[in-house]
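Me: I'm a chemist; would you kindly supply a protein sequence with its structure tokens?

Assistant:
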Amino acid sequence: MQCSGSTPSPAGSAPVRVLLWVVGEDHPKACTGRRLVRRGLVEPMAPLGPTVRALLLDPHSEVPLSPADAPEVARSALAAVDCSWRKIGVRGRYPPGPYDSIPRDHRRRLPWLLAGNPQHFGRLGELNTAEALAAAVIVLGEPGFGRALLDGSSEGGSFLDLNRERLAAYASAADADAVRRAERRLFGGR
């Protein structure tokens, strides 16, 4: 896969093309998104880049990601924003960025999962970027790549252990409605 012009994609060998916009609100050494970019597992998105064609992970979407989204991601990419949970909660949405061109019908929230990172351990949905991207690609049918995204992260194993049953259920769901049914079953009707 190629990025702009003839520059090789850093994630060219990945089974899922992942685009990430790092807002820079977290401490650089603690930022899991920056680590993924440095390791060449995800492609950075330029703040003022061209129109993005991708399926965006958006915690405000009502539609959960499901295996039914895999063909769209294979045609385009999976996009995410690395920003602070504290600040997104205050704003109520992502800061302006290159993903603004992604239409609402190309946005998905992650299915309900528990954070395995020390900052938010056990909290519903407050995953760090590496956890979120790993969960997304596992749901999309690429568990090996999901584990690779968590390699080098001290909390990666605990995230996978904590969510093993949930990730298996979501990855085997046929569509968003089946994911919603699995969420209700796994979380007692929240």
